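Continuing the batch. This is chain 6 of the set; chains 1 through 5 are on the previous pages. Same settings as before, nothing changed between runs. Recording input and output for traceability.
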Amino acid sequence: MPHASSAQVASRQPTHIRRLLQERLDTLARTHQVPGAQLAVQVDSVTYTVQTGEADVSTGEMFTADTAVPLGSVTKPYTAAVVQLLADDGDLALTDLVGTHVPELRRAPHLTVRQLLSHTGGLPTGPDSDDAAPLSPARYLSSYCSGRDVVCTPGSGFSYSNAGYVAAGRLIEAVTGMPWQDAVRALLLEPLGTVPAFLGDRAPTRPVARGHSVNTTSGRVLPVQQNLAPVEAPAGALLASALDLVALGRTLTGHGPRTVLTPDAAEEMRRPVPGAAPGVLADAWGLGLALFQQGAQQWCGHDGNAQGTSCHLRAEPDSGTVVAFTSNANNGTALWHELAEDLDRITGVQVPSAARRSERGRAVALLPQCAGTYHNGTVEYRVAADADGSLTLTVNGDTPAPLVCYPDLTCDLVDPASGRRHPGGRFVRDPDSGAIDRVQISGRTARRTVTA
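Output for chain 6:
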């Protein structure tokens, strides 16, 4: 795709750029069969916002700029920002042991608040939402975050963890004396000018989008229900629009209201945490923030998927540029990646949509080192070998997916239906013995428990 020079972009009027963004979003939504989506871009002190399609195919309600979309894991930066606000006010310190505030984690030695927010605390990912549905935060943490469940020593590695954000919500409640929803509403959403919306609201005060499952082969689109357990709210229960995400992005880059996050507090959240190697999720990690390298610029943000939604936030602190995208379909991520590539041509913004891909060389057979069974809490990853030495990955007994491995121990997952390769993760060696003792799949680390 041809690159637009800065002079070409500067010569365009905002109305022209907005029209091009609208046309491209409309076209890509049709191409990817996504029912509805929003895009908001803050660049050069101008905010462009466009939306397309239906918020709910069963009612025909249209997307508006105010429509709130289930954010999934993009909730986590909001939760982390509330903890940072508490640290900035002196109510806690990022170096505090989490167990001093959260009784259920007193047996997790050396787990700090900073490690909790950056997924470097060694906590497991947590149980399925169905299993977590009846649990209180205290029961959840006591049952699934004991010492035997730790996947690595705190500070020694990265493992993406919803359980860590259940603990962060519990931390907020312990320090503020307020439920997580009330705290995030009072301390962050309302100061940002965001009308609060949460999964489970019986009478939402703003229009909300419904998630959808799209079968791209048959073209069938079905509304789906959200199934996040109430205890998991700090990890994924917020709804917001793309414009709301721009407001958060401006705050995270130090360009928002100082009454929310000071520039120093925002910089603290964006600082890469030692020991965090998030693999396919990002290039580095901060406090609740994925970090992406684009040339000399470091962007921050997060990706999130709820039931039938896909949402993405990117913000660059030097220029104050923010890009936010929401969609109400399970296949919205593919639309996001293609749209992100087009933004350079239309707006001059080169936004990283994913982690950088390294040059890994040709695929190799790593059978003797990699085959075995690995666990992350209740999740079992089984790496098995075929007769010809090829590897497959099975998660909790589901259909095996072929694995393609590389000399640097990274691996791709192969879609059995299409044969396409997707970045999967990596195998990790024990620093002392050199033996492969962990596997990281989609950012989640599992410890080897059985050798093949």
